[in-house]
Structures are given as C-alpha cells and as structure tokens.
Amino acid sequence: MKSDKYSIGELIEQVTETNSDNMFGSSDVMGMTITKEIIPTKANVNNTDLKNFLVIKPGEFIFNPRTHGKHIGFGYNNSNRSFIISWNNIGFRVKEEMRKKVLSEYLFLHFNRDEWDREACYRSWGSSTEVFTWDALCEMKLVLPPLNVQQKYVDIYKAMVANQQSYERGLEDLKLTCDAYIEDLRRKLDCKRIGFYLEESDQRNNIGLTAEAVRGLSTGKEFINTKADMNGVVLDNYKIVKPGQIAYVSDTSRRGEKISLAFNNTQEFFLVSSISTVFSTNNKNLLPEYLMLFLTRSEFDRYTRFNSWGSARETFDWDEMCNVQIPIPDIKTQKAIADIFTVYTTRKKINEQLKAQIKAICPILIRGSLANGG
To answer: How many domains does the chain have?
Structure first.
C-alpha cells in the first residue's frame, strides 16, 4: 500500500449554496469553536436577514478565516441535518471525484490537530486582524494513506466520540434531575433572600500566593486559567478565594447575556482580580453547593442581566446579589440535592477530559495511519 501527497486544494471545493429561499431560520444558525466543534451561534440573529447565509450539509466543513491567536475556528458537520452559517465564514466539502481518495472524516482528523492550527496561523496575514484565506488553505499539503487505512482510523475515532457522547447524555440526565428538584422546592417552599446567609470577603493576597494561583471566572460558571499576561504583575491587591467560597464579576456587559461566576470546590487557595466579588455562605443554613444549583441556571443569568444597572457598563452589584431569593429547605435536604450536583460537576469535568483526550489522539491516529499506509 502506498501513501500519496496532495495539496488540499486538489481535494476540496467551496460551498456556495445560500439560504436564498429562507428555508432555514434563526434556530438553524450555527457557529464554530477553536476546539473544532459546531455550536449554536452566540450572536443575536432574530432580526438578521439570513438569505446570504451559507447552507452547510452533512459531511461539509466550515472555518472562520479570522484567526484567534494560535487557533482557527473550525467545524465539521457530522450530523444528519443541514444548518446555516454567517456569510463571512467559509464552507467547503470534498470534491465528488476525490471521494475515492479521501474520507471527509479522515480529513477532519487532519484539521483537528494543533499542528494544523500552527501551520494555518503561520500562513495567515494581516495587521490588526490576521486572515487565513481560502487560497492559503488550498496551498497546504497532506499525505493520504489508502482509503481502507483511513477508514480503520476513522472508525477508532468515531468509537471514542460515541462513548464520549453517551457519557454526555447521562450527564444531562443528572442536570435534569437537579432542575426537577429545584422546581419542586420552588412550588413547596417560600423563597428567602440569600443575603441573610452570605458574607462578603475582601481578603487580599497577604500570604504570598504566586501567579500560579491566579484564576479567571468564566460565563460557564467555572474557574479557568487566566488569559492575562502575569509577567511582572504585582499580586498584593488580588483577592483570595478560599475553598468553599464563590466569586463573581459584577460587570455583566459584553458577556453574552451571562454572568461570570465560579465556586471553589477544591482544597486550593485561588487569586482573582480585585474587581471580582468574593463571598461565602453560612453553612449552618445555606450550603454553597446548594446555592450553586441556582447560580448556574440560565434563569439566573437572565435575572442578573435584568437587574444590572449602569450606562456604559452595567453591573450586578453586591446588594443585588443579596436580594436574590431562593427556596431554602433544611440542611439535610440541601445536602441530598447538592450531592447530586456534586456528582454532576465531577462528571462534567470528566466529560471535558474525554473531549480533550479525543482531540489529543487525532495526531496519533494520523501518524498511525501514515505508518500503516505504506
């Protein structure tokens, strides 16, 4: 068996079909991530003319020509339905006559590697905005093993994805269980202001924590590694988030209609920016894990945006947080519900690890296919 070398332009062609007849609506608009996933668009397209949006059918690819640092926004439609993307993105597919040379799924393995991102960014050009053009994509080279070898490694990848997706479906079942408990409590109990059970913390970094402890707060309600350059930054004014404490950013503007918030469920001490608000709960009456059930709901995101105030910048301040009302049952009931949520958050992290492992195996699969391709 012999592997052959091609330019990508020999294998693919652009997708040009548009939503000219308005068959697709705002719920069909998708976007892509730098982790190579297709996701519902974050843009508000309710009043947008969708006629010029590109139609992406099963087995077709999309990418955002504007680069994002070290990665390219990219996706592959591995579903059984079509969707639309903004006209300023690029869609493409494998040419009909080249489908005996390359599988679409195998080509996605090639694109779903950090090595490809690095080369694509190297080939991008621009000043304020760097662009990875269609021509630059077509000029890239790749080596293809025989089709049967491609299929073997695609099957391995698809089996791993199927296992991860099965795990993810079980994850959503747990979330539904938590939500059902909450709705049942809302019907049975009166709601109380949580401010009676909260205590704000303003402890600064007087214990010498280093930049390794600095965390950001995501709209996904998690602590994340900071994206800021911490070289030379003095950390004395950063706030400490102890185990069991919650932190949030009061500024709700320009965050996709969500509030950035996280709970420190580790045994580590974290540092967050001084603009963040840090607080703890009275564990005798309100468990932080139980409170997080409410703070991570989409309903809470909508509540914080509605109750944010300001002109150039809208904020959900500490007084507004204290005014939040939720049903507060006895501690035993809180713990029972919180235990389910703890399992959910643990499995959610495992699911993200599974996704990372699947992405990490793509270059291994490519190398293995080439080694066995002759």
So the answer is: 2
